[in-house]
Amino acid sequence: MIPALFSRWRRNRRLRRKKPLIMGQMGGVAPHGQLAQRSGVKAFFYIALIIATHTLAMMQFEGFGFGDSVWLTLTSITTVGYGDLSATTVWGRLSTVLVLYIGGIFVVGNMAGDFFDYRSNRREAMKNGNWSWTQMKDHIVIIGSKADSEQHLARLMSECKSAEATAGREIVLISECFDHGLPTLLQGFDIKYVKGCGSSPGALQQASVKNAEIVIVLALNEEDSSSDGNAFDVVCRIREINCSAKVVAECVDDDNRQRLEKAGATLVLRPVRAYPEMIIGGLLHPGSTVILENLFTAQGERIVRLDEALTGLWADIVSKYVQMNAGTPIAYRDTDTGKIITAPPGNTTISADALFLLGG
């Protein structure tokens, strides 16, 4: 009977512990810290009640003074047991068994249950994006799109981890695309996850945007110019709580670039899902995204292939074609291997059957 009652108590207890998790999903920030604080206060209350009850029982049944009763209670509850005082009456011993032993087991069990419930809820909240990361500082926040691709995010995070200026920073992803937690591919980057969107103040608070060093705002839809309105709103919200962060915003329509820059975006670039490395590269090397965007969109500069047998120093070949106004050599195809070699050192002697030039 007792095991059945204990099992039912534990089951009801676990159901009650799930309430804070649901509240966190609705309100944006899961109050697990409050749960731990309440559990600590409750445990302190139980211990104080046990000490007070046993002290009064010793005074009543054993005739000890207040000091001796407190001493006996403390030495008994801490299992020190010096033996200088002990309960000798039937009611005194019964009080010790009921209050200290059974009551102590209840408190310890209750504290252990609270601890394991907290750990379980904490893991579940972190997995599902309901945990609050407000203690993080100088980290990177990535605000996802409506249809975040695992591969795209993985390459973006890989670039964050490999670039020297961002390698040591933790990453928090805000996204609504992963209902069952982060996929395995993204878990390998040891990132933090917040379920939500950039226009939600609760999600920005959970991700500790106010303390972030870099915030990346991906376009909701890379083919829909109305996404720029969302990006504008998100950038404004970021600047309201963080004036110093570097903010990167994707912009679908070039006509909206200036508005995003005025809103506070440090870097505005077109969404190029096939090359997410542009985001970090553009942030660390200002101006480089303009060149790459022009190449991707075939506006202005183009890469031209010239099929011609060439041998000699790479520096001499580059100088020759630049002086001829034919374009700037950026790569060649090796005659022997057929591999494309990009930007070799100037003192490299090459043998090429094709040359790639950057020109208008």
Describe this structure in words.
There is one protein chain. This protein has 3 domains: 2-128, Orthogonal Bundle (Helix Hairpins); 140-297, Rossmann fold, CATH 3.40.50; 302-359, no CATH class. Helix content is 50%, strand content 15%. It contains 13 helices and 11 strands.
Q: How many helices does DSSP assign?
A: 13
Classify the secondary structure makeup into a structural class.
alpha/beta
Helix content: 40-55%
Number of strands: 11
Q: Note poorly predicted spans.
A: 18-30
Remind me, CATH topology of the largest domain? Answer: Rossmann fold
Mean of all residue-level pLDDT scores: 83
Tally of individual domains: 3
Describe the secondary structure blueprint for this structure.
Elements: H1 2-17, H2 19-27, H3 32-62, H4 66-77, H5 90-128, E1 140-143, H6 150-162, E2 171-175, H7 184-187, E3 192-195, H8 201-206, E4 214-217, H9 227-241, E5 246-250, H10 257-263, E6 267-269, H11 277-284, H12 288-297, E7 302-306, E8 310-313, H13 314-323, E9 328-334, E10 340-342, E11 349-359
Helix pairs in contact: 3-4, 3-5
Summarize the structure.
Helices cover 50% and strands 15% of the residues.
Pick out its properties:
about 350 residues; alpha/beta; 13 helices; 11 strands; single chain; Rossmann fold; five-stranded antiparallel β-sheet; 3 domains; six-stranded parallel β-sheet; Helix Hairpins
